[in-house]
Amino acid sequence: MSVSDPIIEQRPLLVDPAHPPLTVLDPVLARVYAARGIDDPALLGRRLQELLPDSQMKGVPAAVARLLTALEQRQKILIVGDFDCDGATSTSVALLGLRMLGAAEVEYLVPNRFEYGYGLSPEIVEVASRSRPDLVITVDNGISSIEGVARANALGIDVIVTDHHLAGAELPEACAIVNPNQPGCDFIAKSTCGVGVIFYVLIALRRALNERGWFNGQAPNLASLLDLVALGTVADVVPLERNNRALVWQGLQRIRAGQARPGLLALIEVSGRRRDRIVASDLGFAIAPRLNAAGRLEDMSIGIECLLEENYDRALSMARELDELNRERRGIEQEMQQQALELLGQLSLNDRELPFGLCLYDEYWHQGVIGILASRIKERVYRPVIAFAPGDAGEIKGSARSINGFHIRDGLDAVAAKHPGLLKKFGGHAMAAGLTIAAEDLAAFSDAFDAEVRRQLDADDLTQRILTDGELPEAAFSMELAEALRNAGPWGHQFPEPLFEGRFHLLQQRIVGQRHLKLVVMPEGGTLALDAIAFNVDTLVWPDESVQKVRLVYRLDVNEFRGQRSLQLMVDWIGVE
């Protein structure tokens, strides 16, 4: 199997970096902002006062009305969450926020993915009913739970759905649905994730309670929950448009100041990050995987309890348990990835002969890790990938990851429409989705999925394009610029961290930490020796002492080691010149 090198292109400038007020910035930073459509740093959207009003979000008034009744009548509320990081933070924010606002009795339930699957299923409603709740609130799920909500209604349990996933043709008959992606919702920040949606509901509820004179004194400060809102938003890889940037930025400031949940601070400690220098990418690549490991391998309740814990020492013990689970998850993932690559190698296909939509299955793969596996294989072959693992009797469950240009949830919907009964259930986003099919239908589904991808994409779409912010002059390789770029975000999906490219002389190369390539390079035509590191390289290819020149796509960063700080290039892609 061979994979073509990506096409490396410079991001087009969306505004003129030579116009004030960008001219007061470092020219590189001005160019970075201009390539992201920012012509004034004041438009980054970092202030809470700039958040969109909750009045634009459909379903909020109905949800608040039902919650007011629940609080005033001291009814029992049950939060039903999801088993990923967005679900864990959504559950924690809902629970903590409602308690802050005076709810008498609030509990949570997160379906074990291996027993009940995703969402408010009829089966999980039966489990929930044992605690006799008056009201169920779904967080980060529920928009597709038609049967589950119907079962709750039959049992006399009201349901408020708070979700952000795409709605299907039919909506559940809940007493309120709050979802920016439901039909008729005018809230323009459609990328708001589950934790953002429930945070908005809490804001509206606090205002309604305050108007009723509910609080004796000052109303509680819900901004204290923004550390969790930031974590869930970054972890769910939703676009960091202006509204989300404000939520993430404010959450990061609270974390840096030490005003975060003990469990989150403990997770930062076990991940080896510095709390006072935390950035969005740390939340996405260091904290979220440790929290997600609980839902992937065991029960997300461990992660939620860590976020809810008030005592730091107990939270640290839980964080260490999550860290160990994450190590186990990585080992399983690496073994599965190697098996998948061997499977592709056995097919004797190059990248032009692979299916456009690739489906992979192994009877020994772990359900909790197939999403990461699909993502890793997608990065290797650059095409939509679905990895399947055994599910319930006679079924297999798939986790899908896509590329730019192919909306994976809509693609599955198209397959379902053309082949009725082929998909038992599915749901998701543009870039990620989950599905269940009969094991015996794998071949038929694989063909149908490939055909749908081929209908929408051509061969050129399967060539990866890396957009960079161009080359840097040697004078720009400085700690000052690295720090300025680090703090110029928050960076994330569709507001990407600055990425540069260039040609370098390769002075030194060695493997560290088993799979990481440590480099010393010098810009072509320059005299400055620079440290660089590329993570998780193919050790069958690197190091290669015959290589003297390389082309790098990299980020500027500050490396801190034993109290010493130095400039370092974080290599995203390396090619031989």
Poorly predicted sequence stretches spanning 5 or more consecutive residues: none
Helix vs. strand class: alpha/beta
Give the helix tally. Answer: 16
Q: Which overall shape is indicated by the principal axes computed on the Cα atoms?
A: globular
Q: How would you sum up the major sheet?
A: 5 strands, parallel
**Separation, N- and C-terminal Cα atoms:** 22 Å
- The residue fraction in helices comes out at 25-40%
Mean pLDDT score, rounded?
Answer: 92
Lateral arrangement of strands in the main beta sheet: 3-2-4-5-6
Q: From the alpha-carbon coordinates, what is the Rg to the nearest angstrom? A: 24 Å
- Counting DSSP E segments of at least 2 residues, the number of strands comes to 17
How much beta, percentage-wise? 15-25%
